[in-house]
Every structure is written in structure tokens, then in C-alpha cells.
Amino acid sequence: MRTLAAVAMLTVVVSSAGARADAVKNAEPQSIQPAELAKFLRSPKNKKPLLIQVGFRVLYEQAHIPGSEYIGPASEDEALGRLRARVKALPRSTFIVLYCGCCPWSKCPNVKPAYAALRALGFKNVKVLRLADNFGADWVDKGYPVAKGR
After folding, report:
1. Paired residues of 127 in beta bridges
2. Into how many domains does the chain fold?
3. Mean pLDDT, to the nearest integer, of 12-33?
4. Which domain holds residue 78?
5. Is the pLDDT of residue 145 over 70?
6. What CATH number is attached to the domain comprising 130?
7. Comparing 7-21, 37-51, 60-74, 92-106, which segment has the lowest mean pLDDT?
């Protein structure tokens, strides 16, 4: 009887862990608008977030948010591995902002996998920069700060 109860309990635990992982993977990312992030970054009172570009290198080299780090397209396992390695030792309360900007928000293949990976690692303060069209139109053309090159 105890064995049956233990097996039942283990089944519930494993099932709920799998359900939680699926929920994290499919969760709609919490987002931040470009104007809001630009204002936040300008304020000397705010502790700057860890800014991570999860898109393509050519886009990063053309223009990126100053101080952001290039990880690579998070639709690729190699880039997700670099992302996990980069944040491994950080407190789970670290404010992290992810962005790509390769294409319209609704079609971006990179932000959701990156967001899901960080949430699965236990990071709670993660936001994705909501670029409706792309980085050029929604950040650069609005006059927000940019850096070029690596």
C-alpha cells in the first residue's frame, strides 16, 4: 500500500513539473515598450538591467542598445546555451531585458525561446522589448540611443 501511495505521489509530482515547464515554455513574455525602456535607461536613479540581444549578429553590428550583450539567435540551441551560461551565476532577481528586432513582434523566432529559457531557470524579473515592427523602426528611427559594431 505504501509503495502504491509513493508511486502515485511521484506521478503527481512529475506530472505537475512537466505541466509547469510547458506553462513556462508557452507563456506570453512580459514586455516593455521602447519609450518606457529608453526612459528607464536615461534615469540615473535606476540600476541598469542586463540587456541581451537575442537576434542575428548582422543586426547587432548595424545598431544595438548601448551596453547590451550579443548572445545570438535564440531560435538556435547554441545561442540558448550561451544565454544559460551567461546568466548561470546571476541572482534570480536580476532585471533582464531581452530584445531581437529582426522582424515584427508576432513573427519573431527568437524572443520567446530566450524568455522561456530564463523563466525555466527561475528568473522572475525578465522583460522582452516589444518591437512592433523591427529594431530600426521602433528604436533607431525613434531617436533612442544606439551603438554600432561589436
Report:
1. 97
2. 1
3. 61
4. 29-140
5. yes
6. 3.40.250.10
7. 7-21
Task: Report the half-sphere exposure of 61 (CA within 13 A, side-chain side).
Answer: 5
Residue 14 lies in a domain: no
pLDDT at residue 3, as a whole number: 53
CB atoms within 10 A of CB 37: 21
116 C-beta neighbours (distance < 10 Å), count: 21
Does any domain span residue 23?
no
Its pTM stands at 0.82
Rg for the chain (alpha carbons), in Å?
18
**Nearest partner of 82 among 90, 94, 91, 73, judged by Cα:** 73
Region 82-86: mean pLDDT is: 98
In a domain? residue 61? yes
Under DSSP, is residue 34 helix (H, G, I), strand (E, B) or coil? helix
DSSP calls for 105-144: GGG-SSHHHHHHHHHHTT--SEEEE--SS-HIIIIITTT-
* Residue 22 domain-assigned (yes or no): no
Residue 1 pLDDT grade (very low, low, confident, very high; cuts 50, 70, 90): low
- Length in residues, the chain: 150
